[in-house]
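One such given next:
>
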Amino acid sequence: MANIVIIGTQWGDEGKGKIVDLLAADADVVVRFQGGNNAGHTMVVNGEQTISHLVPSGILQGKMCLIGNGVVVDPGVLIEEMDYLSGKGVACEPENLMVSERAQVIMPYHKEIDKAREKQKGKDKIGTTGRGIGPAYEDKATRRGVRFADLIDPEVFNRKLADILPEKNFYLEHYFHEAPMSREAIAEEYSAMARRLAPHVTDASVVVNSAMAAGRKVLFEGAQGTHLDIDHGTYPFVTSSNTVSGNACCGAGVGPTRIDGVLGVVKAYTTRVGAGPFPSELFDAVGDYMQEKGAEFGATTGRRRRCGWLDMVILNNAVRLNGLTGLAITKLDVLGGLKELKICIGYRYKGKIMDTFPANLHVLAECEPVYETIDGWEEDISGIDRYDRLPDKVRRYLDRIEALSGVPVQIISVGPQRNQTMVLQNPLG
């Protein structure tokens, strides 16, 4: 029996969707525990690409999928995604896709406020997706949110909407100078969605704990990455939830003693979407090479990802924050063709070397990466399916990551397809 948390170690976009899809073959249940449809997980099966934003990646393997209480859910997006997957022949029935009755609902005013804030900030904008994630978490924290248990109860939903909408409209009209929203229109739209989704709403904590008690294997799927965590990331250039592994317990309703391991997904280089500090970012032809060869565009926004060398300061920060027990290295094939690779092993700040990640962004902005240089490789490794067939220089790069992080590499990905993956040690046993 093994219950494993899959976590991103960088700023998201590490390839978690592929790893969850792969491991779901050996799991019974997959649980999404935080974030919203501001995340996108891309999976490629038999050459066909599927992108999910809310539905856990295990859906393609026909597993029981749960959206936990820690997720903020746009019901319209969830229905669109269910229809999209159903159109591909993927079952999305109440028996295999459930959403927690305690999950928070993203309302239309959340999205309007999100977009209005970014518009007002202009060049100082944070770079949110405009999907209402932050404002939904705000209402959760101030106890003014709408949960799925409320959404599917017409009396409760209409009372809550009548209570909060005047305040939201006042904010939109008089602060942002945007048009107010119609209570009747929202009520009609969301009531129809509530009827559609009601059969899928359940106590997800009871379901997942019952599955574990029965000896079933559970994967807990995170969104974004460690350094977008609202507490531990590059605040304020972060997401609005805790992305670290500890939140799997809070966001799914399980105790910490239920977790058997944490797999950290690491891109073989580093990328970031949107604004915020990025010490190892490249502004040269090598960065362009990574961006083009790696097709580095956000799965949710389509925005170009910034690219840079692998940063061990942030990886080791992720090791500590998440208690990583294994690493999954993705997009290793993208580095093929580079004669020389660099690994950031520290930051130089005012003449001193730092090996920990500073909270002060002004300090971080003045940090210069300290690099270790290692030989690259010319070979195309995307067709290699065994570790012992990898070129020596590739294995030396992987060995160096293990040595610098102190965590074993368990999975290696050399392309987007399932069969372009080497499982050295299955964390599910």
User: Anything to note?
Assistant: The mean pLDDT is 94.
